[in-house]
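Key result, reporting period 2: structure in, sequence out.
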């Protein structure tokens, strides 16, 4: 057999990418990709933290996520001993955001709107004449409150010995209001597509900056998944999640960032 395609050598060059989070990780499971630069293969394994969804109580959500994530790491033999101990393997982690960390500030916006400085797409520049404008800085501060526990969690992973930690930016939601509300009725009220995308823009921008400060790279293929700034229908799975084609784009982006 040709040594270049030997199964043994193929396995030797394969690294695992563990995708950890809520139901958004399902499309990643058993996805395989190859780095054309090095010839290395990567295989994805999804660690689904079930029944993890948004409610108005943010702190309990974070506590539940923290407990489930670290239990999952231990169950998959990725940590050895208490939190902060050295990892057993050298895996690649892709942490996937739950809706909760993004939905909180969206609901808090309520009857208000805001201007995004230097916005480029029409959906980010539009304003609702029926809503009161509030300072952009206030929106940023509210998003930071909801984002902080997650940044702390990413920091804990880095302190625990994980070197290749990535976080997936929240993906573009379904642009149809009725479709979105049909999937997430527990959010309490119908939300407007412009509000969803504007808050998401702030959220992902802060995530990228704050994650970088603790040595975590954010994977954000937003531009490749959208048309005119909103979700391209070909990547929609069920009005709540993105399909496998979108997952592949995220993984290819991640592989391109590896050292």
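The corresponding designed sequence is given below.
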């Amino acid at each position: 057999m040709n040594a270049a395609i030997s199964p043994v050598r193929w396995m030797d060059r394969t690294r695992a990418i563990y995708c950890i989070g809520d139901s958004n990780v399902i499309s990643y499971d058993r996805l395989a990709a190859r780095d054309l630069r090095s010839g290395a293969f990567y295989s994805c394994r999804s660690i689904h933290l079930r029944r993890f969804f948004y409610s108005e109580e943010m702190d309990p959500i974070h506590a539940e996520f923290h407990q489930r994530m670290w239990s999952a790491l231990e169950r998959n033999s990725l940590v050895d001993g208490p939190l902060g101990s050295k990892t057993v393997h050298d895996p690649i982690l892709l942490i996937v955001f739950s809706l909760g960390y993004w939905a909180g500030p969206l609901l808090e916006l309520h009857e208000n709107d805001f201007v995004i400085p230097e916005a480029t797409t029409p959906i980010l520049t539009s304003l609702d004449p029926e809503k009161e404008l509030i300072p952009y800085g206030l929106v940023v501060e509210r998003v930071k409150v909801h984002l902080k526990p997650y940044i702390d969690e990413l920091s804990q992973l880095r302190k625990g010995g994980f070197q290749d930690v990535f976080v997936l930016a929240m993906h573009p939601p379904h642009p149809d209001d009725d479709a979105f509300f049909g999937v997430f009725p527990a959010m309490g009220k119908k939300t407007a597509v412009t509000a969803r995308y504007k808050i998401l823009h702030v959220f992902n921008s802060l995530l990228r900056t704050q994650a970088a400060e603790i040595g975590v790279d954010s994977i954000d293929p937003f531009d490749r998944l959208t048309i005119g700034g909103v979700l391209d229908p070909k990547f929609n799975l069920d009005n709540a999640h993105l399909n496998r084609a979108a997952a592949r784009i995220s993984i290819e982006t991640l592989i391109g960032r590896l050292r």
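Confidence is low (pLDDT under 50) at residues 1-11, 56-60. The chain has nine helices and ten strands. This case is discussed further under Risks and Mitigation.
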